[in-house]
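Q: I'm writing a short methods note and want an example of a predicted protein-small molecule complex. Could you take the sequence and the SMILES for pyridoxal-5'-phosphate and return the bound structure as C-alpha cells? Please keep the output block clean; save any remarks for afterwards.
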Amino acid sequence: MTKQLNTIDYAAEKDKKDPLARFAKEFYIQKGKTYLDGNSLGLLSKRSEQSVIKLLEAWKTHAIDGWSDTQQPWFTLSETIGAKMANLIGANAHEVIATGSTTINLHQLLATFYEPTDKKPFILSETLNFPTDIYAMQSHLKIHGLHSEKHLKLIKSEDGYTLSEDAIIEAMTDDIKIIILSSVLYRSGQLLNMRKLTTAAHERGILIGFDLCHSIGSVPHQLSEMGVDFAFWCTYKHLNGGPGSVAGLYVNERHHAKTPGLLGWFGSDKQVQFDMEPTFTKAAGAGAYQLGTPHLLSLSPLIGSLELIEEAGIGPMREKSLNLTQYLRDLLESLPETTNLLIRTPKNDERRGGHILIEHPEAARICKALKSEGIIPDFRSPNGIRIAPVALYNSYSDVLHCALTLATILKNRTYKNYENTRGVIA
Ligand SMILES: *Cc1c(COP(=O)(O)O)cnc(C)c1O
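A: Understood, no commentary inside the block.
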C-alpha cells in the first residue's frame, strides 16, 4: 500500500475529488444508514418523488385529458421514457420502449423470436441465470410442445460463479434457435463480453438477447452497434424507478418489420389506435411490443430518476462505480481480518458490473450484524453477501465504513449474536 487506503482521510480526499458527489443529496438516504443494496432496489430521489406528485396533480386537475393535454402527456410517456433509456444502452430511440416487467417482456420476446423448427428447436441459456428467466423459457418450450429437459440447453459454470465466453460459444451449435443470457450475472456480478457473444451467435445464424437488469444504469452498452437482437430489463435496480416500476425492452431495428408474438392495443400505431378497428396496425418501432394501458403511476418515478442519470452521465457513473468496487476489493484484500474472505466477482474492470460478491459460511449472520450497524448489504442464500456501492449516492467513505465494520464483525465474531437463518426476501 502506497497510501493508507483504510484511513478516513484517504476516503474523504477521494470524496472531495469525486465529480458526482453532489448527486447524493438528490436522494433520500436515511440518517445513520449506509445503503449498499442499490442493485436490488435503488433509492428514492427527490426528482422521482416530484414526478410522481406531478402525475397525481395532472390526474387531479385534468382527469381524462391527462392522456393528451398535460405537460407530460400520458399517451406518449412510454415512448418518451424509452428514448431516455435508449441513450443508456446505445440504442436508437425507436428501438426501445418502457413497458411491462422483466418477466413479461421476456415472455413477449420469446413469443416473438422463439420460432422453433425441426432443425433448430433449442433454447440456449445457463444455469446461473435468474430463475424467472428460466421459467419463462420453460413456458415457451411447453407452448410449442417441446420439453425443458431436452430442448433447453443450460451451460454449466465451471466454478459455480462465472462463465467463460469460449464455453458459451462452444455450446452454440447449429440446432440452437435462440440464446438468452444476462449482461451481468446477478450473483457474482460478472459482466459478459456481449460483443464477442453476439458476433459468435450471428456467425452461426442464432438470435441472441440479453437481460440487462443488473447493468442498465450502471454499465453503458452499445447494443445497436453490436447488433444484439433484443434485450429487456427492470428499472427498480440501478435506474431507481421504485418498487415494481415499469420495465424496458429493446428490439433491434432490423426486426421491426416483424409482428410481435403477443398483441395488444397499445402496440398499435398511435395515429389509428383509437379508430378501434379489429385489424391490428402495429407501431413502427419497439412501441409495437406494448400490450395494454401503461402503468403510469409506476412509470412516473422514472421521469425524475432518468433526468438525474442524464445529468450525471452514464460514462462518469461507470467510472466511479468501477473505482468504488475496486476500492472495496483493495480494502478487503488488505485488512487482516478480511483477507480470507472469498471474493467471487472477477477482478478486471471489463469483466465486472456494479457489485461485489463475497462468500462466507456465516453470511446470513454477518449480514444481520452489518444491518445492526446501519450498513445495508444484500444477502444471497446460502452464503453470499452482495455489496453494491452506487455511483449516484454512495461515497468512498461509505465503502471504507462498510469494510472496516465488516473487519470488526469478523474480528470480534459479533455475528455469533445473530441466528444463521434467512428472512423471506433475503
Ligand atoms: C431483478 C431481476 C429480474 C426480476 O424480474 P421481474 O420481472 O422484475 O420480477 C429478472 N432477471 C434478472 C437478471 C434480475 O436481476
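A: Remarks, as requested: The domain at 50-310 is CATH 3.40.640.10 (Aspartate Aminotransferase; domain 2). Residues 101-103, 130, 132-133, 182, 186, 211, 213-214, 234 surround pyridoxal-5'-phosphate (CB under 6 Å).
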